[in-house]
Specification:
Radius of gyration: 22 Å
Strand content: under 5%
Structural class: mainly alpha
Number of strands: 0
Distance between the termini: 44 Å
Low-confidence stretches: 1-8
Order of helices and strands: HHHHHHHHHHHHHHHHH
């Protein structure tokens, strides 16, 4: 059937696909220019993609699981992606290109269904952390299944919700992050008039999917290494165990990635604040107060996911924020939150001043204004984190910027240059996680 009217997002399906194609064309053109002028010297290939966790995924794909009780081993990784890689028969570059295609398809579908404005789609598609969609990592497959569960919630398709959760749980240890988010979402959903039975049904199906994914992974590892809890037991060798956070926070990836991890940390803190507010409103409602306006369930789930990631990083990595940006910015949940914020009424400008001041204080969690911060002087640290804060405010105020087109173009080009810069770092075996 022909599309006779434009959705609020302003694009038809075919226009959404063309916009993604334009992004790929611009990304390819910029990458070619940077490479030909010698600004970057490495591009993805079967040889240069043999980096970091690719080794472990490829080992599972070729040989299956192995387990050590004294050192790191590949049971710390979940099976769906490496088995998918095995079935594809592709080399590292081939599976990297497949990953990129899967991500682009899911991203186009998600942003079209969420009715994200065209400029904001380009901005989201250029997020520097998305370099992990171009390498043999789990990010792309996780994005596909997480998109399925988000749109299942949004369109009330229980089957999509189940398959999305199951796929995510077989791709990564999603049950750890998803279970608290799911329970929080169901709690708020059930408090709405006439929604208790529906919320409980969706919660039960979600827990079933997550439980099934854990059972499948445990069975696979039990059959191959003789230990059904190998994944959990191996975590301590990867430095993941419950411990008090150490301040100032650190980032092994260095200053090139710190700004992304700092922004992800900011989002985690903001999500904690919003969820505490929602919990307080729920408590007031239980005590007989007025029924509060409900957030869409996919937004509540996305907030809960960000809180879970934030707490995991804070409590299981001894003060290191390594990977927090990758865990948040490469998921549909980041897209959901940005899209929802952009659809809300504009804020008064004084709110942005307060957020800027609060953000500059938050960066002290990294020891930003002390001599312990990466050999920076206080003035240099203020400048660095001032730029990070300005970048953050541009996203928060995007919907009401007077020069929106110009700011979007500036951020889009900056993001893509940083994406190639970080990708080159990854290909050179620098710590980019």
């Amino acid at each position: 059937m022909a599309e006779t009217s434009l959705p609020p997002g302003g694009l038809t399906r075919s226009q959404s696909v063309l916009l993604t194609a334009l992004h790929v064309l611009l990304l390819t053109a910029l990458g070619s220019a940077l490479y030909n002028f010698g600004i970057i010297r490495y591009l993805p290939s079967a040889a240069t993609l043999d980096r970091w966790d690719v080794y472990w995924y490829e080992q599972i794909a070729r040989e299956g699981y192995s387990y050590s009780t004294t050192s790191t081993s590949n049971v710390a990784f979940f099976p769906l992606f490496p088995y998918f890689w095995r079935l594809s028969g592709l080399d590292r570059l081939g599976i990297g290109l497949v990953n990129a295609g899967l991500f682009l398809a899911a991203f186009t579908w998600l942003t079209h269904q969420l009715q994200v404005p065209a400029r904001l789609r380009l901005l989201l598609a250029s997020t520097p952390s998305l370099l992990f969609m171009l390498v043999p990592y789990t990010e792309a497959l996780f994005f596909v299944f997480a998109t399925l569960l988000v749109l299942g919630l949004r369109q009330q398709r229980l089957g999509w919700w189940f398959l999305g959760l199951l796929g995510c749980g077989l791709t990564r240890s999603a049950s750890t992050m998803f279970t608290p988010a799911l329970l929080f979402m169901v709690l708020l959903w059930a408090a709405q008039p006439g929604q208790a039975r529906t919320a409980l049904r969706w919660g039960a199906v979600g827990l079933l999917a997550l439980g099934l994914s854990v059972g499948v992974v445990a069975t696979v590892q039990w059959q191959q290494v003789g230990e059904p809890f190998a994944f959990a037991l191996a975590q301590r060798f990867w430095g993941h165990f419950l411990q008090m956070p150490v301040f100032p926070l650190t980032d092994p990836s260095g200053i090139n990635v710190l700004w992304l991890d700092a922004l992800a940390l900011w989002l985690g803190v903001a999500a904690v604040g919003v969820c505490c507010g929602l919990a307080w409103r729920w408590l007031q409602q239980v005590r007989g107060g007025a029924v509060a306006a409900a957030l869409p369930p996919e937004v509540v789930f996305a907030l809960g996911y960000c809180v879970s990631v934030f707490l995991f990083i804070l409590l299981y990595q001894a003060g290191s924020v390594w990977n927090i940006g990758r865990y948040i910015f490469t998921t549909p949940f980041f897209v959901v939150l940005v899209a929802y914020l952009s659809s809300r009424p504009a804020w008064p400008w004084r709110r942005y001043l307060l957020l800027a001041a609060a953000s500059m204080l938050l960066w002290q969690a990294f020891g930003a204004y002390t001599l312990d911060f990466d050999t920076y002087t206080t003035a240099q640290a203020l400048w660095y984190f001032g730029l990070v804060t300005a970048y953050l405010l541009a996203y928060l105020a995007w919907r009401q910027l007077r020069w929106q087109a110009e700011v979007t173009m500036l951020l889009y080009v900056f993001n893509m240059v940083m994406l190639f810069h970080l990708l080159e770092g990854f290909l050179q075996f620098y710590v980019v996680q």
